[in-house]
Amino acid sequence: MRTVPLLLRSGPTVAAAVLTLALTTPTASAAGISVSTSGSTVSVTTSACPTSSGSGYGSASLLNSSQRSFADGRVVTLSGTSTSQSAVWSNAGTGTYTVTVRCANGDTAGSQAVIVSTVSTPTISATASPTRGVMGGLGGAAKDYGTVTFAAGGALVACGLVATAWVLRRRAKPYRL
Question: What number is the average pLDDT over the span 21-30?
């Protein structure tokens, strides 16, 4: 009887944790391609496209959610060696993209969805500073008021101490004035 409420309470927490891990994993691979993101840069690596009679390895396309065909996306030529080819797109905006790799012989090496989430970096800006610096001194005053002012302040502090002592003494003996 007690396991059902426990499962109902922990179910959304576990689902949120799994969803968070699935969305934050920057590398995904499918059918011969490996896609990764770093900030606003998306890169794809494959080894499924051998060179085809000197015409290169093929091309890769980065498609946003509104683009449907290979030619509609940002198409770049694969570069690399006969064992590993790659393509890179810079300045990809935040969103979900589909990366498709097409070899020079017309075969599709793979297609993979990737989420790009750019991390904003804090900017540092200069703040205005006082032209004459900080005016330090007794109490941070910028003007000297003299001996009379200090004597008056001391008298006020002394009156406050005497009043505090009188109130505390009266509280100790409530029958006296």
Answer: 44
Query: Alpha-carbon distance 111 to 89, whole Å?
Result: 15
Our measurement of the distance from residue 139's CA atom to the centroid of its chain's CA atoms, rounded to an integer in Å, reads: 43
The whole-angstrom separation of Cα 43 and Cα 97 is: 12
Distance CA 34, CA 44 (A): 6
16 pLDDT more than 60: no
CB 118 within 8 A of CB 40: yes
The 3-state secondary structure of 35-82, one letter per residue: EEEECCEEEEEECCCCCCCCCCCEEEEEECCCCCCHHHCEEEECEECC
Read off the pTM.
0.50
175: three-class secondary structure by DSSP: coil
Helix %, strand %, coil % for the chain, to 5?
Answer: 30, 30, 40
Q: Which of 12, 13, 44, 14 has its CA nearest to residue 116?
A: 44
For residues 134, 137, 142 and 143, what is the CA-based torsion angle, rounded to 10 degrees?
-160
